[in-house]
Amino acid sequence: MIHTNSTIQQQLLICGLNRPTVAKTIFSKAPLQLFSEDPALTISKIISRYYYSHDDLMTIDVMKSRLEDSLSRKEQQKVRNGESPMSDAELSNWYNYVDSLYETNQDTSDEMLSELNKYVKKNLSEAAIYDEVSKEPDNIEETLGKRLDDIKSINLMGNNDEFEDVTGNFAGRVELYKKLFEKKIPTGFSNLDYVLKGGLAKKKIALIAALSGYGKTTMLTNLSSNMVREGYNVLHISLEEIDAEQMLRFDKIMSGMGGKDILKGLDNTNEGLRSVYNIYNRYEQTKNLLYVAKMPGTCGLDDVNQMIVSANRKLNGDLIDVVVLDYPELMAGAHKTGNDSMDGEVIYQGLSKIAQENDVLLLTGSQLGRGANSKEIMSFSDVEGSYRKQNICSFVATLNINAEERKEGYARLYLDKMRDRELVKDKFLYFTFNKENLRYGMEDDKQEAEHHQLVDDTYNNTKEEYREKQSKATSKRENIMTNFV
Questions:
Q1: Backbone angles phi, psi at 162, to 5 degrees
Q2: pLDDT number for residue 160
């Protein structure tokens, strides 16, 4: 829900009344940009001045007393200018507005606090840019950059010192626990959603890792497609894919058709593509899937944030729920210092902040090192700087597909990290994979048994091959030693 400016300004004033730091650090910066007209503008100045010399919360009596002084000065100015004084009705409106600030509870929902954050940062940034440009300083990049950095650090999402009675307030606890599921977005894979207790949470980063060419982008595209069909708006950002190839990947997965069928009659009847769009038109709950491609090394954190803003604007009242980013190691600044571990941590911290401020699930990928291919279990530990990145993510999983699985159309997800592993019975989740339409899917009982047997046989064969190699190496060493002696 998007609120009107008057509601946002009222909530911002209430926030300032209850949190003196907000009044002192925000209201004074650019009141004309934050509060467009009276009575909100004048009241914001009264609150700001009060908290510069007082630590205790401002009572309604103090507020009305100071408002009376302010209105008295306004009346005197009107007289000097030859203007008519305020009518009783106009004066009443001022005091009624003050009453509403003290009678209305502060909306501390994530949605409202997120809107307040965006509103404050947008308006203060515009004011800072205008101010610095009008001054025309020689070092405008430095001075403006510092002001904008200060504005970026503003955060209204913190708690308001609201204390919860742990052993009491039963009704409040019920509502609190409901929030555990409110922000979760189903992945569309029942086995994954089961262990995640409903899906992946907004304001968090989830990550899928894989070897190059082992299906990372395809899995991310499956998740994008599933979440759109589940009724969520998705922004899919690619930093390495060619537009036509990625769009074909979307069409295969969304329609369930193979590439040959989709491209049938291209530039003639367009028979295949028409079939794809006929399928799209039958999706009743489908939301918006927006796609944008950038060249590697050209997209930074600010660009991702701006893409979300632009996408929200395009949705005209609706908002993006999920951002899929494929993948951060190709972003601008990902290798800024040459220390991939530290650079990666900075990028992931920035992405986490973007997810929180925009109230989105940020779903991304990462590429495993070449050495992972020789391991029995491929995991995120095979990524440079994995510990720092994994520590920031709420969910991490790694695609495992050996040669036999690829041949038979199977795949596994190794569960590297989950906040809650209560429902996890196996370190892997098992999937089917259709090589024609690129869809990952759920296994039936027969497929599941076959897949487990396939993995066990491959593991045993690998161990036997290893023992044979070791035996041959030992025999060779013994022969060399015998001949040497």
A1: -90, 115
A2: 46
For residues 215 and 209, give the distance between their C-alpha atoms in angstroms, rounded to a whole number.
Answer: 9
Helical segments of 136-200, H only = 140-152, 170-182, 190-195
For the record, the structure tokens of 111 come out as 């949605």
**Of 439, 366, 352, which Cα lies nearest the Cα of 398?**
366
Q: Are 414 and 400 in contact (CB under 8 A)?
A: yes
Neighbours of 195 (CB within 10 A): 17
* pLDDT 10s digits, 338-349: 888 888 899 999
Partnered with residue 412 across adjacent β-strands are 400, 430
Q: What is the pLDDT of residues 474-483, one digit of tens each?
A: 566 666 666 6
Torsion of CA 152, 354, 235, 11, to 10 degrees: -70
Identity of residue 2 = I
* CA–centroid distance for 280 within its chain: 26
Which strands sit side by side in the sheet containing 205-210, from one edge to the other? 289-293, 234-238, 322-326, 361-367, 205-210, 395-400, 410-418, 428-433, 440-441
The residues facing 219 across adjacent strands are none
Q: Name the residue type at position 294.
A: K
pLDDT bracket for residue 337 (50, 70, 90): confident
Specify burial of residue 310 (Cβ count, 10 A radius: 0-12, 13-18, 19+).
middle
Give the CA distances from residue 234 to residues 15, 218, 228, 237, 401, in Å, rounded to whole numbers and listed in that order.
Answer: 32, 16, 6, 10, 27
Helix (H, G, I), strand (E, B), or coil: what is residue 424? coil
C-alpha distances in angstroms, 163 versus 57, 103, 171? 17, 20, 15
pLDDT mean across residues, the chain: 88
Q: What percent helix, strand, coil does the chain show, rounded to 5?
A: 55, 10, 30
Cβ atoms 218, 375 nearer than 8 A: no
Cα 446 to Cα 455: distance, rounded to the nearest angstrom: 14
Nearest to 209 by CA among 379, 93, 455: 379
CB contact burial 89-128 (16+ within 10 A = b; e otherwise): eeeeebbebbeebeeeebbeeeebbbbbbbbbbebbbebb
d(CA 321, CA 310): 14
Percent of the chain scoring above 90 in pLDDT: 53
